[in-house]
């Protein structure tokens, strides 16, 4: 039996102005949804959030949810520091 993985991710727009933090089990599918602007009235559509800058894997949904809630409660500077630990240049991780 294959263990399902869960991911907490941070996405941003081209100029890294806004951050969107979410949880998903298929990062590629979710980023495609962000990039295709599939949700009619969403935060990610309004602010053109389409670049994946941070992603962390978890073995359980509970762990991922706890991490997501923690990150969402952080101030912007702490989120920037977290992103820089893995992606100091804010490159789109899906392009690597």
Walk me through the topology:
Layout: E1 6-12, E2 19-24, H1 27-36, H2 43-46, E3 51-58, H3 61-72, H4 76-86
Antiparallel strand pairs: 1-2, 1-3
Folded structure, characterized:
- This protein has helices spanning 27-36, 43-46, 61-72, 76-86, and strands at residues 6-12, 19-24, 51-58.
- It starts with 5 loop residues before the first strand and ends in a 10-residue tail after the last helix.
- With 96 residues, it is an alpha+beta fold.
- The mean pLDDT is 89.
- A 3-stranded antiparallel beta sheet has the order 2-1-3, sandwiched between helices.
- Helix content is 39%, strand content 22%.
- The protein has one domain: GIY-YIG endonuclease.
- The longest helix is centred in the C-terminal third of the chain and has 12 residues, at 61-72.
- 21% of the residues are buried.
- Strand 1 (6-12) and strand 2 (19-24) form a beta hairpin.
- The protein is built from 4 helices and 3 strands; from the N terminus they run E-E-H-H-E-H-H.
List the keywords.
single chain, 96 residues, alpha+beta, GIY-YIG endonuclease, three-stranded antiparallel sheet, 4 helices
In short:
This protein is of the alpha+beta class and 96 residues long.
Residue share in β-strands: 15-25%
Residue stretches low in confidence (pLDDT < 50, at least 5 long) are none
What class do helices, strands and sheet pairing give? alpha+beta
Largest sheet: 3 strands, antiparallel
Q: List the total number of helices.
A: 4
Question: What strand line-up does the widest sheet have?
Answer: 2-1-3
Element pattern in H and E: EEHHEHH
Q: What does the radius of gyration come to?
A: 13 Å
The total domain count is 1
Specify the overall morphology: globular
The CATH level-2 architecture is identified as 3-Layer(aba) Sandwich
Distance between the termini: 29 Å
How is the quaternary structure best described? Answer: single chain
CATH topology: GIY-YIG endonuclease
Rounded mean pLDDT is: 89
């Amino acid at each position: 039996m294959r263990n399902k993985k869960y991911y907490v991710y941070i996405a941003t727009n081209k100029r890294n102005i806004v951050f969107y933090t979410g949880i998903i089990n298929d990062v590629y599918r979710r980023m495609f949804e962000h990039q295709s602007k599939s949700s009619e009235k969403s935060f990610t559509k309004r602010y053109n959030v389409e670049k994946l800058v941070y992603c962390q894997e978890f073995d359980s949904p509970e762990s991922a949810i706890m991490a997501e809630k923690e990150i969402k409660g952080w101030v912007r500077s702490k989120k920037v520091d977290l992103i820089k630990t893995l992606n100091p240049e804010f490159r789109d991780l899906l392009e690597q």
